[in-house]
Fold this protein.
Amino acid sequence: MERLRKKLKAKYGGWKRLHAELCPDTPYSTFKDMFKPSFKSYRSSTMLLKACKKSGVTSSQLEKNILSYRTVRGRVEIEKVKLPIKISPIFDMLIAHIFGDGCCRKYGQRGLRMDYRQYNPVLLSNFIRKAEAVFGKLRYNREYFYAANRFYLPTACSIVLASYYGLGPGDFLSHNAAIPQAIFSKPKIHLVAFLTAFIIDEAAIDSSVIVITLCNKKLIDGLSKICAILGYEHSVRGKTLYILAGGVRHFWHDYLRLKQYYPEANMGYREEAICEFILRGRKKLRTLGEGERLNAIVALLSEKDRTAGELAKMLMISRQGARFHIKRLQREGVVDKIGEGRAGGHIYGLKKEKRYAVSKWGRSYQRGITKKRILALLAKKPQTPLVLSKLLKIGTPAIRDALARLETEGRIAVWKKVVLTTHPTYVWRATDRKA
């Protein structure tokens, strides 16, 4: 500031002429104080840029001397500023978060303001860490934002995020949003970051499948295009994107690489759900006797009451697999439902002790059996996933996963679309008549 002050004084000789050219609406005494190093308040960026232009000081030289900045009457201050702002994968991840669980508003002459809502405090903290990785240290009222489960980005940061891709408030609306075309030509790590943000905000992770359902078909098609570019095995049904088991494994490898370079990309509890699936796939295959898994569940429930998710995690099997065994134990009066868990799942308790004989040794995994049974049924008559689930006594998510694989292999196709409740479903038919 002292260097800029000396240059301006040498060129203009005094401050009155400069005041008339730069900002005549500002009181003269305040204007003079703004150029003193001892001035304690924030200076106008517009005035400083004009002064630099008149004195020959470059904007890059000005950037190196900025200690902090904020918008007029803004609540959040940016300290330890990062200028120039780099377009990193985290920059693109912030844009994706605003598409997912955020919004963008226009406030008169103050410009744009983006905010992000997240009820999980860890994931909300991670969003703030991402913003700090791009713009600098954010000084904010922690209690205010965590009580509201919402974080407001400063107007200056919001304008940078939106203007880089030429976006406006209307481009973030639920039914109008579309992924900017420039995203698709970015390096692979940027695409992984963009997809990761949507998985954090919108995905349901059910055993081996990541499911993203949105009301906007354009966003689903854009995410499908990203999966295709990255080589992830996936399927799209209406407004739902399914990242299948092979694609989840591929994504996990890319996500770990992203997190290695950008730790703030952490997915929190969603990472744990995917990690459980990866670990199940890596476990050593061995033969299991009929009754061995049932005995293990009885032993665990004799210690304490547990949910199906807790049993699945301890036995390293899928939640659907745990529920399958629990249903048998319920039918035989060994296990009973005793309450509701925090996440809406049931809590099961042991009703009576029983020991099952271990016999009929076979493989842990019966590869392809479910697909063969589905093909046999579809060869006779077109069916919906719900009907197939009831006929085969297998969970609907597992049926949908198998149908997606069969469609990828070209062995089945959609016969027609029907609306049974509020959501449409599909009737499938077999194209491989040899089934």
Residues 288-362 form a domain with the Arc Repressor Mutant, subunit A fold (CATH 1.10.10.10). The radius of gyration is 29 Å. The chain has four domains: 2-52, 87-131+140-285, 288-362, 369-430.
